[in-house]
Amino acid sequence: MKYLCLAYEEESKLNALSKSEWGELRNETLTYVEELKKKGYLIAAEALQSIRTAATVRVRNGKVSITDGPFAETKETLGGIVLINARDLNEAIQVASKWPSARLGSIEVRPIEEGLKEDRRYA
Fold it and tell me: For domain 2-111, is the CATH number 3.30.70.1060?
């Protein structure tokens, strides 16, 4: 089953890391990505640019509204995504718990919905 791991982080915490601390975290992350590839878990992993580059788009009554920045004002923002294969939610959580930046932020793990249901979006 596929799971999307959403990595939330505080830009200020990452920006406060020294060059050597950042280098360690970056190398640890790249090593973990390679490990996930070798073990067959990893489908995709992508880092996102700063929230300062984000735009939120809404359409209400046919009118498009664009707001600079993320949808919600919060300290932790979505910093990247990791799409994995795992047997079940427990295994997906174990994979997510080893993601290096989880020590500085959080990882939300959500199952991928296979297809779009005909009767309603959420049960």
Answer: yes
